[in-house]
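Please check our next protein.
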Amino acid sequence: MAHPQLLDSPLFQVYFHELWGLADSISKKCFIVFEACPVPAKDGYIKIDPALHGVIAALLAEAANLKKMLAVPDRPGFKESVEQFAFRVGRTKLLNEALGYPDLSEISRAETRNSVEHFDQYLDRASLSLSASDGEVSGMALYNMVLSSWAVFSEKSFPLKVYVADERKYFNLDYEADLSSINNESLDLIARIRAVGVFKNDEGPGGLMVRVMRST
Protein backbone atom coordinates (compact mmCIF):
# COMPACT_ATOMS: atom_id res chain seq x y z
CA MET A 1 0.00 0.00 0.00
CA ALA A 2 1.33 3.43 -0.97
CA HIS A 3 2.34 5.82 1.78
CA PRO A 4 -0.62 8.19 2.34
CA GLN A 5 1.55 11.30 1.80
CA LEU A 6 3.03 10.12 -1.48
CA LEU A 7 0.23 10.93 -3.91
CA ASP A 8 -0.24 14.33 -2.29
CA SER A 9 3.45 15.18 -2.49
CA PRO A 10 4.20 18.09 -4.85
CA LEU A 11 7.43 16.28 -5.71
CA PHE A 12 5.81 13.05 -6.92
CA GLN A 13 6.33 13.87 -10.63
CA VAL A 14 10.04 14.40 -9.98
CA TYR A 15 10.49 10.64 -9.53
CA PHE A 16 9.20 10.05 -13.07
CA HIS A 17 11.40 12.79 -14.51
CA GLU A 18 14.44 11.36 -12.74
CA LEU A 19 13.71 7.85 -14.02
CA TRP A 20 13.17 9.22 -17.53
CA GLY A 21 16.40 11.20 -17.39
CA LEU A 22 18.42 8.20 -16.22
CA ALA A 23 16.89 5.86 -18.83
CA ASP A 24 17.44 8.43 -21.58
CA SER A 25 21.06 9.01 -20.57
CA ILE A 26 21.76 5.26 -20.37
CA SER A 27 20.29 4.65 -23.82
CA LYS A 28 22.24 7.53 -25.39
CA LYS A 29 25.47 6.23 -23.90
CA CYS A 30 24.70 2.75 -25.24
CA PHE A 31 24.30 4.20 -28.73
CA ILE A 32 27.62 6.04 -28.36
CA VAL A 33 29.27 2.68 -27.65
CA PHE A 34 27.45 0.89 -30.48
CA GLU A 35 28.36 3.57 -33.05
CA ALA A 36 31.99 3.68 -31.93
CA CYS A 37 32.32 -0.10 -32.18
CA PRO A 38 30.77 -1.34 -35.43
CA VAL A 39 30.89 -4.99 -36.41
CA PRO A 40 32.98 -5.29 -39.59
CA ALA A 41 31.71 -7.33 -42.54
CA LYS A 42 35.12 -9.01 -42.76
CA ASP A 43 38.37 -9.10 -40.84
CA GLY A 44 38.23 -7.62 -37.37
CA TYR A 45 39.95 -5.23 -35.02
CA ILE A 46 41.52 -4.82 -31.62
CA LYS A 47 41.79 -1.30 -30.24
CA ILE A 48 42.55 0.50 -27.01
CA ASP A 49 39.89 3.04 -26.04
CA PRO A 50 39.95 4.19 -22.38
CA ALA A 51 37.44 6.97 -23.12
CA LEU A 52 34.88 4.44 -24.35
CA HIS A 53 35.29 2.44 -21.16
CA GLY A 54 34.59 5.66 -19.26
CA VAL A 55 31.26 5.90 -21.08
CA ILE A 56 30.45 2.30 -20.20
CA ALA A 57 31.38 2.83 -16.53
CA ALA A 58 29.12 5.91 -16.45
CA LEU A 59 26.11 4.10 -17.92
CA LEU A 60 26.57 1.21 -15.48
CA ALA A 61 26.57 3.70 -12.59
CA GLU A 62 23.39 5.31 -13.93
CA ALA A 63 21.81 1.87 -14.29
CA ALA A 64 22.51 1.26 -10.60
CA ASN A 65 20.81 4.54 -9.67
CA LEU A 66 17.81 3.66 -11.83
CA LYS A 67 17.56 0.25 -10.21
CA LYS A 68 17.57 1.80 -6.72
CA MET A 69 14.60 3.99 -7.62
CA LEU A 70 12.41 1.00 -8.56
CA ALA A 71 13.71 -1.85 -6.41
CA VAL A 72 11.36 -2.51 -3.49
CA PRO A 73 13.60 -2.59 -0.39
CA ASP A 74 13.38 -5.31 2.24
CA ARG A 75 15.30 -3.48 4.96
CA PRO A 76 16.06 0.14 5.91
CA GLY A 77 19.19 1.79 4.59
CA PHE A 78 21.97 3.20 6.76
CA LYS A 79 20.53 5.88 9.07
CA GLU A 80 17.15 5.63 7.31
CA SER A 81 14.29 6.34 9.71
CA VAL A 82 11.28 4.06 10.05
CA GLU A 83 9.13 6.73 8.40
CA GLN A 84 11.53 7.19 5.47
CA PHE A 85 11.75 3.43 4.95
CA ALA A 86 7.95 3.05 4.92
CA PHE A 87 7.72 5.93 2.46
CA ARG A 88 10.36 4.38 0.18
CA VAL A 89 8.62 1.00 0.18
CA GLY A 90 5.32 2.64 -0.75
CA ARG A 91 6.95 4.86 -3.35
CA THR A 92 8.76 2.04 -5.16
CA LYS A 93 5.62 -0.10 -5.20
CA LEU A 94 3.51 2.75 -6.54
CA LEU A 95 6.04 3.63 -9.25
CA ASN A 96 6.22 0.01 -10.38
CA GLU A 97 2.44 -0.21 -10.45
CA ALA A 98 2.13 3.03 -12.44
CA LEU A 99 4.73 1.80 -14.95
CA GLY A 100 3.29 -1.70 -15.32
CA TYR A 101 6.15 -3.44 -13.51
CA PRO A 102 8.94 -2.92 -16.07
CA ASP A 103 11.48 -5.68 -16.67
CA LEU A 104 14.86 -4.45 -15.43
CA SER A 105 16.61 -7.81 -15.31
CA GLU A 106 19.90 -6.67 -16.87
CA ILE A 107 19.83 -3.18 -15.38
CA SER A 108 19.39 -4.76 -11.94
CA ARG A 109 22.52 -6.89 -12.21
CA ALA A 110 25.07 -5.23 -9.96
CA GLU A 111 28.06 -7.58 -10.23
CA THR A 112 29.73 -5.96 -13.26
CA ARG A 113 29.21 -2.42 -11.99
CA ASN A 114 30.64 -3.41 -8.61
CA SER A 115 33.69 -4.93 -10.30
CA VAL A 116 34.29 -1.62 -12.09
CA GLU A 117 33.55 0.66 -9.15
CA HIS A 118 35.81 -1.36 -6.85
CA PHE A 119 38.20 -2.39 -9.59
CA ASP A 120 41.33 -2.27 -7.41
CA GLN A 121 39.89 -4.79 -4.94
CA TYR A 122 38.79 -7.15 -7.71
CA LEU A 123 42.20 -6.74 -9.35
CA ASP A 124 43.88 -7.67 -6.06
CA ARG A 125 41.82 -10.85 -5.96
CA ALA A 126 42.75 -11.69 -9.56
CA SER A 127 46.43 -10.95 -8.88
CA LEU A 128 46.44 -13.53 -6.13
CA SER A 129 44.99 -16.21 -8.38
CA LEU A 130 46.94 -15.54 -11.60
CA SER A 131 50.62 -15.62 -12.39
CA ALA A 132 52.81 -14.84 -15.40
CA SER A 133 53.29 -17.90 -17.59
CA ASP A 134 54.49 -19.03 -21.01
CA GLY A 135 52.93 -22.46 -20.68
CA GLU A 136 50.37 -23.99 -23.01
CA VAL A 137 47.52 -23.51 -20.53
CA SER A 138 48.26 -19.82 -20.12
CA GLY A 139 46.11 -17.03 -21.54
CA MET A 140 46.39 -13.32 -22.19
CA ALA A 141 45.03 -10.64 -19.89
CA LEU A 142 43.41 -7.85 -21.90
CA TYR A 143 42.93 -4.43 -20.31
CA ASN A 144 40.94 -1.41 -21.54
CA MET A 145 40.40 -2.96 -24.96
CA VAL A 146 37.70 -3.19 -27.60
CA LEU A 147 37.44 -6.31 -29.77
CA SER A 148 35.25 -6.65 -32.82
CA SER A 149 34.81 -10.29 -31.73
CA TRP A 150 36.44 -12.80 -29.46
CA ALA A 151 37.41 -14.56 -32.69
CA VAL A 152 40.14 -11.97 -33.39
CA PHE A 153 42.07 -13.32 -30.42
CA SER A 154 43.33 -16.86 -30.73
CA GLU A 155 44.41 -17.28 -27.10
CA LYS A 156 42.27 -17.75 -24.03
CA SER A 157 41.63 -14.29 -22.63
CA PHE A 158 41.26 -12.89 -19.14
CA PRO A 159 39.22 -9.71 -19.64
CA LEU A 160 39.95 -6.61 -17.60
CA LYS A 161 37.47 -4.02 -18.92
CA VAL A 162 36.93 -5.45 -22.42
CA TYR A 163 34.05 -4.59 -24.76
CA VAL A 164 33.17 -7.07 -27.53
CA ALA A 165 31.34 -5.40 -30.40
CA ASP A 166 29.55 -8.31 -32.05
CA GLU A 167 28.05 -9.37 -28.72
CA ARG A 168 27.52 -5.83 -27.43
CA LYS A 169 28.79 -7.06 -24.10
CA TYR A 170 31.23 -5.63 -21.59
CA PHE A 171 33.46 -8.05 -19.72
CA ASN A 172 35.41 -7.45 -16.54
CA LEU A 173 37.10 -10.43 -14.89
CA ASP A 174 34.36 -13.00 -14.22
CA TYR A 175 31.49 -10.60 -14.88
CA GLU A 176 29.68 -9.30 -17.93
CA ALA A 177 27.03 -6.73 -18.81
CA ASP A 178 24.79 -7.01 -21.86
CA LEU A 179 24.58 -3.45 -23.20
CA SER A 180 22.00 -4.41 -25.81
CA SER A 181 19.63 -5.63 -23.09
CA ILE A 182 20.37 -2.60 -20.91
CA ASN A 183 19.50 -0.34 -23.84
CA ASN A 184 16.28 -2.24 -24.61
CA GLU A 185 15.16 -2.10 -20.98
CA SER A 186 15.88 1.64 -20.87
CA LEU A 187 13.88 2.30 -24.05
CA ASP A 188 11.00 0.19 -22.73
CA LEU A 189 10.99 2.19 -19.49
CA ILE A 190 10.91 5.46 -21.44
CA ALA A 191 7.91 4.20 -23.42
CA ARG A 192 6.14 3.26 -20.17
CA ILE A 193 6.79 6.71 -18.69
CA ARG A 194 5.45 8.37 -21.84
CA ALA A 195 2.28 6.30 -21.46
CA VAL A 196 1.58 7.88 -18.07
CA GLY A 197 -1.06 10.52 -18.82
CA VAL A 198 0.68 13.61 -17.51
CA PHE A 199 3.81 12.94 -19.64
CA LYS A 200 2.16 12.09 -22.98
CA ASN A 201 2.94 15.47 -24.56
CA ASP A 202 6.45 15.84 -23.13
CA GLU A 203 9.31 15.58 -25.62
CA GLY A 204 11.72 14.24 -23.06
CA PRO A 205 12.89 14.44 -19.47
CA GLY A 206 13.19 17.95 -18.18
CA GLY A 207 13.00 20.30 -15.26
CA LEU A 208 10.03 21.75 -13.46
CA MET A 209 9.15 24.26 -10.80
CA VAL A 210 6.73 23.29 -8.05
CA ARG A 211 5.51 25.53 -5.26
CA VAL A 212 6.05 23.84 -1.90
CA MET A 213 5.67 24.63 1.78
CA ARG A 214 7.52 23.02 4.66
CA SER A 215 5.41 21.12 7.17
CA THR A 216 5.41 22.60 10.65
In short: The helical segments are 12-36, 50-70, 82-98, 111-117, 119-129, 179-195.
